[in-house]
Amino acid sequence: MVAVGDMLVGYATDGGVRKRGASGGLVTAVLAAALEKGLVENVVVMKHINEFEAVPIITDDVEVVLASTGSLHSVPVNLAKYAVGRKVAMPAKPCDAQAVIEQAKRGMIDLDNTYVVGLNCGGSMHPVTTKKMLVEMYDIDPEDVIGEEIEKGKLIFKTKDGNEKGIAIDELEEAGFGRRDSCRYCTIKIPVNADLACGNWGVIGDLAGSATFCQVMNDKGVRLLENAIEAGRIEVQPASEKAIAIREKVNTAMVNLGNTLEGKILTEIPDEARIQYYLDQMANCIDCGACKEVCPVCACGEDSKCTMFHSLVDDYSMSMYHLVRLLHLSDSCIACGQCSDVCPSDIPITILQSRFAIPAQRKREYTPGMNVDETPPFFEVILK
Amino acid sequence: MVEKEWEPKIVAFCCNWCSYGGADTAGMGRFQQPASTRVIRVMCSGRIDPLHVFNAFLEGADAVLVTGCHIGDCHYVNGNEKTEVRYKFLEDMLQQLGLEPERLHLNWISASEGERFAHFIRDVTAKVKELGPSPLKPAGVS
């Protein structure tokens, strides 16, 4: 039947799910089947409120899972921490899957109990920026939006009155809108670290738009798919050579773009100006601690070094909290962008973090969250 | 009144079994060294958390020295190897932060190497004197 490494194209058998889901509803159907057949106890899904808001929920109701279909580009939430201590299946962007593995390395998640269905991701947008962009660039009232889509490098919004308007993403990003900074220089677009790597890249011909490309990454992926096929929820067929080539082409283009943008976003700062740069960036910090709270790779809990040794009474030139976090995350930051998203003072913490993390990780040839058997280099002591 | 020459403040973390002994030997051997160091004794260099180094800088140290036993000589089998892993991260981080690399040093000094200790302190003090006060020094601390 299904084997590790298989490249498949599949879709949900249920007409409704297939139509509502982004490209074939395969992911929704796989998640529903996993819950139905008792593979997992819960499923983490996003409950759709509107185009700019969705709440993650942990459910054991198949109907809720089936009703959650749809992709949202402007709700950039990381789901990894919802899997802590539970037996769940969850959809995941590459950075969610990375965070799940990082949590597993720190003993917080049992990977045997966690099924991760990866989704291709070209980047996500911040809801506030998106709303602003709709008004300024699209001349659309955010309230009127009923759907969005990314097609051929264009971001298309559909409105209530049936119209749609698309603007090239490059153009939007030039104007300071579009994807979040960390998504622009991200280079993991296909979640090869998840159990299944799904997405609509490489779905061609008459299936385009109504099927999902799916690569089986490991034994858990095989179990997920076979379970869904047995339950009669999905149908799969091998992907054609051409489809695989197209998927690879899209991926290469995206990764190359990410590499180019990295140089533009993480601009070189001369040695002597750097300390002032960091002091200026962090000057507005109000010590709320939200960046730690949302960090999907942080597994310290409440009593952590960064908070316990940081006191507001200290009149230090730089916050101990940030110093500890910058060091602590330099081997494990996955640049998911959560910290920048939640910062009430709009400090671009993800960028600051990446300035430390990216060189440190490259030097050690280590990418966090890709392989559970790799020890984080900070903990690696090689006995000579 | 004669203006006193600025003297850097250097925090040296010394391992109880080696470099602390080394500092002792330096004193007993009467090797000349500047009075710029404040020695903090730890039971093993593996005890030195990057946090201690940050704290030293934020409290006004102009340089921080991390010293311990030579690799293979650790009293606790591999404590200094753990230090080394951490130190490399710390080094990269402080460099990215914009602090001069001369302000942070790692050195292995055994209890018998008194002269090496004194020489190390002289060396670092001279370098830091050239650099001037640390940019992380809080206001009001000389």
Helices and strands in order:
The complex is a heterodimer of chains A (384) and B (142).
Chain A: E1 7-12, H1 15-20, H2 26-36, E2 42-50, E3 53-59, H3 62-67, E4 88-92, H4 94-105, E5 115-119, H5 127-138, E6 145-151, E7 154-159, E8 164-168, H6 169-174, H7 181-184, E9 196-199, E10 212-216, H8 219-230, E11 234-238, H9 241-265, H10 271-282, H11 290-294, H12 305-308, H13 320-328, H14 338-342, H15 349-363
Parallel strand pairs in A: 2-4, 4-5, 5-9
Antiparallel strand pairs in A: 1-10, 1-11, 2-3, 6-7, 7-8, 9-10
Helix pairs in contact in A: 2-8
Chain B: E1 10-15, H1 19-28, E2 37-42, H2 50-59, E3 63-68, H3 79-97, E4 104-108, H4 114-131
Parallel strand pairs in B: 1-2, 1-3, 3-4
Helix pairs in contact in B: 1-4
Structure keywords:
heterodimer, A: 384 residues, alpha/beta, Fumarate Reductase Iron-sulfur Protein, Chain B, domain 2, eight-stranded mixed beta sheet, three-stranded antiparallel beta sheet, 11 strands, 17% strand, globular, B: 142 residues, Rossmann fold, four-stranded parallel beta sheet, 4 helices, 40% helix
CATH topology of chain B: Rossmann fold
Helical content class of chain A: 25-40%
Radius of gyration of chain A from CA coordinates: 21 Å
Low-confidence stretches of chain A: none
First and last CA, distance of chain B:
18 Å
Biggest sheet record of chain A: 8 strands, mixed
Q: Overall mean pLDDT score of chain B? A: 93
Any overview of this molecule?
The complex is a heterodimer of chains A (384) and B (142). With 384 residues, chain A is an alpha/beta fold. Chain A folds into three domains: 7-124 and 185-257, no CATH class; 127-178, Nuclear Transport Factor 2, Chain: A (Roll), CATH 3.10.450; 267-379, Fumarate Reductase Iron-sulfur Protein, Chain B, domain 2, CATH 1.10.1060. Helices cover 38% and strands 17% of the residues of chain A. In chain A, the strands form two sheets. An eight-stranded mixed sheet of chain A has the order 3-2-4-5-9-10-1-11. In chain A, strand 6 (145-151) and strand 7 (154-159) form a beta hairpin. In chain A, helix 2 (26-36) packs across helix 8 (219-230). The longest helix of chain A has 25 residues, at 241-265. Chain A starts with 6 loop residues before the first strand and ends in a 21-residue tail after the last helix. A four-stranded parallel sheet of chain B has the order 2-1-3-4, sandwiched between helices. Chain B is globular and about 50 Å long. Chain B has helices spanning 19-28, 50-59, 79-97, 114-131, and strands at residues 10-15, 37-42, 63-68, 104-108. The mean pLDDT of chain B is 93. Chain B has 142 residues and is an alpha/beta fold. Chain B has a single domain, classed as Rossmann fold. The interface between A and B is medium-sized, with 35 and 27 residues.
